[in-house]
């Protein structure tokens, strides 16, 4: 499988915690919604901060500002190729700039629980709140310590 396929496949299976998804960690498994990840198959796990892609918003903002400059100073080079007046160009440039600014402000960083099952790394849970994912990581590490030490554990269950 290609890297692009794995990236989109893993992110499609990642569950967003803003939708009140039940998460349960016990001595046998990590249960997120209706998906179950056995603890004995988890080799690594951790909390990772993802950086949002700001390129589309920045590109729209720059193109919008360039078109706005063309409209304000009547450099309507596009009028030679298309039938666009300066007023129409001004409206298009303002809309592009505003949409690009909204995209830049809307993209926020997320915190992701990454789990390695065998040789496959996957994003299990995502949330903009670091404490929510941190609680799952702490419960998961406690249960894995109990499993490795051999003592029985009570399941930690909560709804986030």
Description:
- With 160 residues, the chain is α+β, with helices and mostly antiparallel strands.
- Helices cover 46% and strands 27% of the residues.
- The strands form 2 sheets. It has a 4-stranded mixed β-sheet. Strands 4-3-2-8 form a 4-stranded antiparallel β-sheet.
- The longest helix is centred in the middle third of the chain and has 21 residues.
- The N terminus and C terminus are likely disordered.
- SSE series: HEEEEEHHHEEHE
Radius of gyration: 24 Å
Q: Rough shape?
A: rod-shaped
SS summary, helix count = 5
Cα-to-Cα separation, first versus last residue: 33 Å
Instruction: Summarize the main sheet.
Output: 4 strands, mixed
Structural class: alpha+beta
* Average pLDDT metric: 78
**Order of strands across the biggest sheet?**
1-7-6-5
The total strand number stands at 8
DSSP helix fraction: 40-55%
Quote the beta fraction: 25-35%
**Uncertain residue ranges:** 1-12, 155-160
